[in-house]
Amino acid sequence: MIQIQLRLFSLVLLCLWLTSCGGSSSPSSGAQPPSLGSTVDAIANTAMQQQGLPGMTIALGKNGTMLYFKAYGVSNVATKLTTQTNTIFGIGSITKQFTAALIMKLQEQGKLQVDDPLDAYLPKYNFPSTITLRMLLTHTSGLADYTTFSSYPGWATNGVSEATLLTAVSQVPLLFQPGTQWSYSNSNYFALGAVIEKVTGQSYETNLNQNIIQPLGLTSTYYSLPPSSQSAIGYTMGTTGVLVPALVVDRSAPFAAGALSSSVIDLVDWDNARVNGQVVSPASFKEMTTPIPLMVGNGSGSYGFGLELSAFNGRPIISHDGAITGFNADTEVFLDSGFAVEVLTNRDDANPVSIVTQIVTSVCNSAQLSSNC
Question: Is the pLDDT confidence value at 293 over 80?
Fold first, then answer.
């Protein structure tokens, strides 16, 4: 899991991409206008080389229609197994989108309210009564990020109970008074997962399967470890400067803050379902996508409920990146058109945000391709 990367969309000279992304040509016919596929492939192939990625999958969709998707590289370096478009990758903090949606569904059912205090649901940890569920959703609670604790590597390797982790979080001084600042913390979403379990009397995984994964038909999205035959191996840079298979993190450590795995195909369906009211009500979705006042006007976007909020050419975008040991991912969707871009990689120091940004810029600023956007 990672600290959030709120986007700063910069102007990119389109001619640089048109030069590298043009279609096939011959000496007598001249260059052809770029196609969506050739544009994406040029960006992807450059990123594969520059970032040293073992494998990657990319998908572009719009309101339920798949515009383009492709797999690159290998999902297993040792066996040279070719990556497929339905290969499953860890998606890290993109999990927070799913957790926030579960909280909103419980609010719709009258089982909680986002302005309720956290200690009303988890009283045994003595969290300050001023911390609300809304503050957890928006990272304004002041809770320290447990992934920075000295105990975290052991938890990631051997697993950890909710009680152990939440007790540790509750005993660390707050970073600031609740509601006065913004600081990205995985502890917020771990606590939200515990609230979901307390309110429903069921595991987070059961809630996820019953309320999101099964109803939406997300056949490649898992809380528990997905089938190895369908999954990419995650890689990290070893001490000798060579990529090595990364630790497979015990799911109990990232939990509701970052345990999910998925495919680009499922993520396109997920984005389409959210934007078109198939996950939560329009009122709930509006609340989720409302910028928090603490961040409005800071020039680098804002945050909603498990969502980064930004804009491209004045058009609102929701997004989130996510890293977990061995993997790095990014997902982005335009709220006005439903245009979505998903990038999954199996290297944990990859920069999928830059790849998504280049694709969005190249497609949406192109006279030939902007209708897709």
Answer: no
Domains of the chain by range and CATH? 34-283+312-372 (3.40.710.10)
Give the amino acid at 225.
L
pTM: 0.90
Q: Are 31 and 22 within 8 A, CB to CB?
A: yes
Best CA proximity match to 356, nearest among 103, 24, 40: 40
Alpha carbon 155 to its chain's center: 22
Tokens of 314: 């004045």
- Nearest CA among 45, 48, 29, 28 for reference residue 37: 45
Q: How far apart are CA 43 and CA 343, in angstroms?
A: 12
pLDDT in the model for residue 27 = 35
> Can you tell me which residue has the tokens 């051997």?
158
| Nearest alpha carbon to residue 294 among 173, 191, 141 | 141
Inter-residue contact 100 to 137 (CB < 8 Å): yes
pLDDT digits (tens, 9 = 90+) for 321-360: 999 999 999 999 999 999 999 999 999 999 999 999 999 9
Rounded Cα distance, 200 and 253, in Å: 21
User: What is the pLDDT at residue 301?
Assistant: 73
Q: Which residue has the higher pLDDT, 129 or 18?
A: 129
